[in-house]
Design a protein that fits this description.
The protein has about 260 residues and is α+β, with helices and mostly antiparallel strands. The protein has six helices and 14 strands. The chain is globular and about 50 Å long. The relative contact order is 0.22.
Length: about 260
């Protein structure tokens, strides 16, 4: 960018795109951001219609030069990357797709050692195992508009994009340029009710369950009994306090090909 480039292209998936977007938005410069999908999940790209089956199609979309302004989420609370050990504390972090707490982290941890599976299949297999192992998580969620929910939960995601976990429509009504984040709070249950919710989530029908509440808002405040581990676009972080604040930055990034 210091050399005068006005377009940056990142080849990868949600984690790679998130790291680059964090730096781009942090500079305050209005640089165009091109996405070439080649990662494990590609969920943010999928929400933009960029889940390409072949590289040629992806390059053609970039060459077309169509630009879409999208929202960016921001964690306002200090956090520390889980890897590598001893990483420095960051004052905050931008994200493209979502932040996730609870069951989401258990699945990521379980999938970390997988050697032969990737993407949606890996997520589904490890998630099925964790449905019987994960103990649940206590939390309190408050929206900027006054909404509040608390108690024991299976998981909580706060989404800018629609999909996660390699294609699950966790926030079916989310659009990356609607100026909102979408909190999906799933109350805890026994293993078999969890399995039913998991199956429904694959088709976006989890929203019909009384255990599930999806709330759009511009900002959220989260409180936990202790500082939580959580994911930001697939990368795991540890919060540096029991309270986290998350907000949306409307139309903060120009994406090429969206």
């Amino acid at each position: 960018m210091e050399d005068g480039f006005d377009t940056v292209v990142a080849v990868g998936g949600d984690g790679t795109w998130s790291h680059v977007a964090d730096r781009l938005v942090g500079t305050g410069r209005d640089v165009r951001f091109g996405l070439l999908p080649s990662g494990t999940g590609n969920d943010f790209g999928r929400g933009l219609g960029l889940a390409y089956a072949n590289p040629e199609e992806a390059v053609r979309a970039l060459a077309g030069g169509n630009v879409r302004r999208v929202d960016v989420g921001r964690v306002l609370t200090p956090l520390r990357p889980a890897e590598p050990p001893g990483s420095s504390t960051l004052p905050g972090r931008h994200f493209l797709n979502l932040v996730g707490f609870g069951f989401d982290i258990a699945v990521i941890d379980a999938a970390r050692g997988a050697r032969f599976l990737r993407g949606e299949i890996l997520y589904k297999l490890t998630a099925l195992q964790e449905l019987f192992r994960f103990p649940g998580i206590e939390l309190s969620l408050t929206g900027g508009g006054g909404f509040k929910r608390e108690g024991r939960h299976l998981m909580l995601t706060i989404s800018n994009g629609r999909f996660f976990g390699g294609g699950f429509p966790i926030a079916p009504g989310a659009e990356p340029d609607d100026g909102l984040l979408h909190a999906c709070a799933i109350g805890d249950a026994g293993p078999f009710k969890r399995a039913a919710l998991f199956s429904a989530a694959g088709k976006g029908r989890h929203v019909d369950s009384p255990r599930v509440e999806i709330t759009p808002d511009r900002s959220f405040r989260l409180e936990f009994p202790e500082a939580p581990r959580f994911e930001v676009d697939g990368d795991v972080f540890t919060a540096q306090s029991e309270v986290l604040e998350v907000e949306v930055l409307p139309r903060a990034l120009r994406v090429v090909g969206g």
